[in-house]
Structure to design on (108 residues):
């Protein structure tokens, strides 16, 4: 019994290291998103850090329109980044979990 417990603890520590490594890796995964007319484009990491924003000149003439474009495009990028990050972290966490009946549904 203790051997199983020690093995499980070791596996959990290993999984924790893998999760941390995956979080760092998400800093290098870039998500590009554009407005529907491609007048605005943003690049963010899977950890939701903004890396680049490109704005077409005509958007600079209308503050409200630019704000709307930024909100819509950034929200789409954030949703995609969150999805990518969650999938990666979930896969690592699921891989490291002991086989306990019923736990599979937590990582889907």
């Amino acid at each position: 019994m203790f051997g199983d417990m020690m093995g499980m603890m070791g596996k959990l520590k290993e999984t924790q290291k893998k999760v941390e490594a995956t979080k760092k890796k998400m800093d290098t995964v870039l998500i590009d998103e554009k407005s529907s007319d491609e007048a605005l484009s943003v690049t963010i990491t899977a950890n939701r850090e903004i890396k680049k924003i490109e704005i077409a000149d005509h958007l600079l003439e209308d503050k409200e329109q630019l704000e709307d474009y930024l909100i819509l495009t950034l929200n789409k990028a954030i949703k995609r980044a969150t999805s990518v990050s969650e999938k990666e972290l979930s896969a690592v966490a699921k891989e490291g979990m002991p086989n306990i009946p019923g736990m599979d549904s937590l990582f889907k």
